[in-house]
Structure prediction request, 316 residues.
Amino acid sequence: MSVIVLGSLNTDLCYQLKALPRPGETLHALSFKVLNGGKGANQALAAKRAGADTAMIGCVGRDDYGQSHIDAMGLEALSTQHIQRSVQPTGSAVIYIEQSGENTIILNAGANEETSAAQLQAYPIKADDSLVCQMEINQAETIKALNYAKNTGARTILNLAPIPDEFTDGLFNTVDYLIVNELEAHAVCQYMLAQEKKTTPDATISAQEQAQIIATNLQLNCIITCGDKGAIACTPDEEIYAAPALPISTKDIIDTTGAGDSFTGVFAAALDRGDQLEEALNFAAIAGSLACLKLGAQSSYPTDKEIRQHLKSAAQ
Ligand code: RIB
Prediction:
């Protein structure tokens, strides 16, 4: 049983700001940090800290940033032997973090553009493994990787972030678990309706209704993360589960960057060790909340023990 993450590795240039700059405005940052990030790398780290045997597959540049990713993952005993070095620079992200904790991100894919399904095919993936993908590498390669993993009998998990400009046909065909936030869920519903040439869905439909529409139409498990309201899951035969977020006061939220990645990595780790959907959802919802309490993505991810302590206190 292993969690295999095929995806992006970025260097995050994180600026804490009082507010976002307006066009033409120059602002002084409150703080600046260079941190390892990228949705793929973040999810791999989150899964590993939650206790899963985890491998990261992707591409970084032959630069210091790329080496920093490999070194940091090695320190956490995460398998990095399938990370390739590219002539392109390591992917990067400029992240503006407002005082509310909300963020704005500008990405440069760099070496992530070269990540391919062939890298996964060189990995000895087994039927009891889980493959986790996101949308920061080439979409066609992601589809190939999901199909390949499914053919081996492995569990497939797709976090549909960031929302692509277009959905390639077949993207959802071999996905077992689709993880989206509310905006991403809306985009999937619009895509499905456009396919059937109907009008776009009412923007006011609830997350639960969205999860039901997606799960039944695409015949997969749909998980929608709803920020401070927790998360909802719907199975293809319409079983519904809900998990609360931790009750965190807004003044304690430092940075929401990578909270969805914390959720996804921990969810994958929980399923991989045999948790049922409801248990995995509860576990992941706590991990997503805890990731908002510190600056940065990977730097804020909890261990298995920390998640369990919070689950226990929430149950008391
Ligand atoms: O989800 C957060 C991540 O998105 C950041 O680490 C950044 O690299 C972007 O990929």
Summary: The mean pLDDT is 95. The pocket of alpha-D-ribofuranose is lined by residues 8, 10, 12, 37-39, 42, 93, 105, 107, 136, 257-258, 260-261, 297 (CB under 6 Å).
